[in-house]
Amino acid sequence: MIKTRWEAVKSCYRAYLPLDLPPQACFVYSSSNNMVPTFQGPNLHYVTGFAGKTPSQDVIVVGDENTRKYILAGAVTAKRSLSYFFLHRNGRQEGISVCQPMIAAGEEPEELVVLEGDDWRELLVQYANITAGKMQVKMPDSSRNLSGYCTWYYYYDAVSEQNLLDNLAAIQAADTSRFPVEVVQIDDGYQRHQGDWLDAHENWPGQLAETAAKIIASGRIPGIWLMPFMVSTASRVYAEHPEYLVKDAENKPIIISGWSAPPDHLWACLDGSNPMVQAHLRNVVKSFWAMGFRYFKFDALGYGMPDGVRYDKNCTAVSAFREGLAVIRRAVPEATILGCGAPYMAVLGLVDNCRVSQDTSRYWINPSNCQYPPNCETSSATMGIRGAFHTTCSNWWMFDRWFRADPDVIMARQDNAFYTFGEARISALAGMMTGVVLTSDHLGTIAPERMALLERCAKYRLRDVRPQLCWCDRWPYSYSGTVDGKFAVAVVNDTEEEIEFKFSDLQLPVSCVEVLQNLGKITEKIIVAAHDAALLIAE
C-alpha cells in the first residue's frame, strides 16, 4: 500500500544571498560532494529560461562570461552538516540559497564564504585553500608520484590468496625501477563477510599477517581494503552486536542495498558516536596495523551517515561519522588512509588520500549488459575509463589542497580488458594529473608497450592543473599546468573524430615535447585521434 500521509521534516539552517549580476549572466559551475556525482555531465553550464533552481553541493560559482564577473558561494566547514546550494533563476540569476539539513534551529551553522573575481578557476583555488585551513588539513608529501598495485580490477571480489602471491611474484620479477610498485593493496574478497574484516574467506587459507610479511619482504608497503562503518546482515558483527547499529525511529537497524553479491548485499551502518563501536573500530585497524598493514583503503564512506538514532543524541550524522573516523585516525596515526566513496568535506583533515573519481572498469564505457565476472561492474553508463577521467578532472581544484587525489586505478593492460590503447592513455593521464598511480594490471602478462605506458605514468606529473580550453555544457579539451617546472598542457579527445590542436591556441611555444604517447619533439600542432590524449611540455 502506498503511503499518502506527508510527514513534517525537522527545521534546518537556510540562508539566501541576493545577486547583482548582469541580466544576461548564465554561467554556472556546479559541484558534487562525492566521487559518485548526483548530477551527471559536465560541471560547467549555461542556465537560461524561466523560474527554476540549479543545485550544487559544497560550493557553487555563478556569473557572466562577457563581463567576467563571477561569484562563488561555498561552505568552508562540515563538522555537523553538509551544505547544499541552489541558484534561483527567474529570467535572470536572482540569488543563491543554502541548506544545511543537520543544523537545527538556533544552532551555529557551518561557516560560509562568498568570493568575487574575474576568473572562476581562481575563485575555486581560493575556496579550496580557505576550506583546507578551516578544516585543519595537513597535506601528506606529494613531491613524487605514489605508485602501486591493487587486486580489484583484475579479480574483483573473487580474489584469492594465490592470486595475490602470483602478482607479488610478477612484481618482484619485473623491472620496477621505472614503475616502482610502492604499495601492494589487497581489495575486497579476503574477508568472510562485509563487516567481519578479521575473519578470513575460504579463498584465503593463509594468515593475512603472513601475506603482509611477504609484501614487506619484497620491499613494499602492505595495503588493505575495508568498509569501516558498514556491516552486512550476514555478518557475525551484525548478528552479535545489534547495539552497534544506527537505528530508525522504531529502533530497527537502518538497512540499505549495497553492491556486494548475496548474502552480503544488505548493509547496516555502525554508529560512530557509540563508545563500543569506537572500541571495535580501534581493534580492527590496530589488528591490521599489528599484521604489518600501513595503507588503508576505507570504502563506502558515503553510506556512513544515515539520518537515524544514535548513542549520542547530540551528534548529527556528520559529526558521528567524523567522530568514528577520528578514532581510527588516532588509532593508526602513521598509516596512509585513503577515503573512498567519501563526502569530501566530511573527511577533510582525517584522510591522506581521497578518491575523486567514479569507478573505472575494464571498459571505456561500462556496458549495460555486463554480467561477467559477477559483481565486477554496474550497469551505469557513467562507469568506466571515460566516466572516471571526467569525474577526476571535474575535481581538479581539490588536488593537493584537500588531500592527495586518487583517480582510481590506471587501466593499461591488454588482457582481461576491453578498451583501446588510446583509451588506456586517457586513464594514464588521470594518474599523471593527480600523482597517484595504482594499477590492477598483472605485471607478468602485460605487453611491453603497455608496461612502458605505466612507467611514463609514474614518471611524469602535471601539477597545478586547471581547465584551459573549456566551454559550458561539455567536458574540457585541455588542462594546463607544469611538469618539472615547465609549462605543460594535457589535451584530451573524448569525441568520435580526430581533433587538431594548434600550440598557439594552447598558449604553448612552437616546439614542445610530447610524453604521453612518447612522440618526442613536435612543432606547431598535434592531431589527437578519437578517444586518445597527449601531454605536451614546453621546451
* CATH arch. level architecture of the largest domain: Alpha-Beta Barrel
Largest sheet features: 8 strands, parallel
List low-confidence stretches: 371-379
Helix percentage range: 10-25%
Please name the CATH topology of the largest domain: TIM Barrel
Count the E strands: 28
- What's the arrangement of strands in the largest beta sheet? 19-18-17-16-12-11-10-20
Q: How would you name the CATH homologous superfamily of the largest domain?
A: Aldolase class I
**Helix count from the secondary structure assignment:** 10
The tally of domains stands at 3
Care to describe what's here?
With 539 residues, the protein is α+β, with helices and mostly antiparallel strands. 21% of the residues lie in helices and 25% in strands. The strands form six sheets. It has an eight-stranded parallel beta sheet. It has a six-stranded antiparallel beta sheet with strand order 21-22-23-28-25-26, with helices on one face. Helix 6 runs parallel beside helix 7, helix 8 packs parallel to helix 9 and helix 9 (421-434) runs parallel beside helix 10. The relative contact order is 0.10. The model is unreliable at 371-379 (pLDDT under 50).
